[in-house]
Amino acid sequence: MFFEPDPNVVPDRIRQDPKFWPWFKDCIGAFDGSHIPAVVPQEIAGVFRNRKGYNSQNVFASCDFDMLFQFVLVGWEGSAHDGRVYKDALLKGFSRYKGKYHLGDAGYSLTECCLTPYRGVRYHLNEWSRGDQRPQNAKELYNLRHSSLRNVIERIFGVTKKRFPIFGNMP
């Protein structure tokens, strides 16, 4: 299922904030994977076991900055890498637009359609909130702003799991 963004419209979240405008003007959303607990037959349980030790599906989703899902792909086993699930999403209708991109985390490859953070540089918002320290260089500033924008996908997964508790705790 998917909702097509208008690639000709700059999202308000970017256009109206000098922290993001004009640097992220071609960004149309963010994507990530999230693990949803799964109950599967014993004979295939091994591939559904994720790195945290429980059985899950790796669900890929993208959203816009108004917290509306653009695309959702379900069914991948919990052991599947985010990059592999992303490649399958591209085959199954996840749209790419020339000159536009989504924000992805370090689990994805940097491509024309996926803007990722610098590796080895502070990134997550909680790393910034621990102290009263400002970005020390251009890479840290970029990662801080990337994280602030990409956080929308983390929030939409959190809201969805809160609204539908079965996504967080399979009976």
What does this structure look like?
Strands 3-2-1-4-5 form a five-stranded mixed sheet, with helices on both faces. With 171 residues, it is of the alpha/beta class. The model has no long low-confidence stretch (mean pLDDT 89). The protein has helices at residues 12-15, 45-48, 82-91, 125-129, 138-163; strands at 27-37, 56-63, 69-77, 101-103, 114-115. It is globular, with a radius of gyration of 17 Å.
List the helices and strands and how they pair.
Blueprint (H helix, E strand, L loop, with lengths): L11 H4 L11 E11 L7 H4 L7 E8 L5 E9 L4 H10 L9 E3 L10 E2 L9 H5 L8 H26 L8
Parallel strand pairs: 1-4, 4-5
Antiparallel strand pairs: 1-2, 2-3
Side-by-side strand order of the widest sheet: 3-2-1-4-5
Mean pLDDT: 89
- N→C terminal distance: 25 Å
Secondary structure: number of strands: 5
Please give the largest β-sheet.
5 strands, mixed
Structural class: alpha/beta
What pattern of helices and strands is seen along the backbone?
A: HEHEEHEEHH
Uncertain spans, ≥5 residues at pLDDT below 50? none
Shape: globular
Helical fraction: 25-40%
Radius of gyration: 17 Å
Q: How many DSSP H or I helices? A: 5
Strand content: 15-25%
